[in-house]
Amino acid sequence: MKIEIIKGAYSSADxxxxxxxxxxxxxxxxxxxxxxxxxxxxxxxxxxxxxxLQQDLHEVRQYLxxxxxxxxxQSDLIID
Length: 80
Fold this sequence. Notes:
Helix content: 55-70%
Oligomer: single chain
Strand order of the largest sheet: 1-2
């Protein structure tokens, strides 16, 4: 099964806003799991995932600042 999350061409500002919101949702998910967990290993793993998401988003935002024209985005969620 597949859910098409994003497909299309966006201005760099709109692409950045969309990606920020998606990454923010994922970070909030991990933060909620951290708050509900007593497992130190799980907490560290989720903190690392949050840092990686923040780093990746920073790099994408830098790329989008220098991008000309429209940005093509495509994201599918595959469920097996």
